[in-house]
Amino acid sequence: MDSFEENYDAEAQRSFTNEQCANLRRLHQELDAKHDEIAAHVAKQLGYDEGDPRSHEEASEAIRSWGEGPEMDPARWPIADNPTGKLQQLLKEHRDIAESILDVREESSDDED
Q1: DSSP code of 48?
Q2: How many CB atoms lie within 10 A of CB 72?
Q3: What pTM, to 2 d.p., does this model score?
Q4: pLDDT given at position 67
């Protein structure tokens, strides 16, 4: 999905230390893997075949919705009836990884000051 190289141009990449680059690469891989895990869960819940592109679209929508608040609209997401369910846990894990990416980026900008 969104590899390190796709998210940062050459100039931005030079602003990171080698350790920060390695951390960002790893975190972006984890983020992509978590997105795939969310898509697989959504596909199973909605009865889609594995690899159905709709599952990735639905996963992206769930991630966007989760980013707007911890509660998702059950009318839009019937599989989100249980706020402590598997989908919510996966979404929280995705958000935690995304926040770790932001932390590394912020650390890099702090280093420049």
Answers
A1: P
A2: 19
A3: 0.79
A4: 64
Domain ranges in the chain are: 4-112
Contact yes or no for 34/94 (Cβ under 8 A) = yes
No. of helices (H) and no. of strands (E), the chain: 5, 0
Per-residue tens of pLDDT for the chain, all 113 residues: 667 888 888 888 889 999 999 999 999 999 999 999 999 999 999 999 978 999 999 999 989 887 665 455 555 555 444 445 888 889 989 989 999 999 999 988 776 65
CA distance 91 to 58: 12
Output phi, psi for 47, to 5 deg: 75, 25
- Residue 39: name the closest of 79, 81, 83 by CA: 79
> Which contacts of 92-95 are long-range, i.e. CB under 8 A and separated by 24 or more positions?
92/66, 93/34, 94/31, 94/34, 94/35, 94/38, 94/63, 94/66, 95/63, 95/66, 95/67
Residue 62 token pair: 């769930």
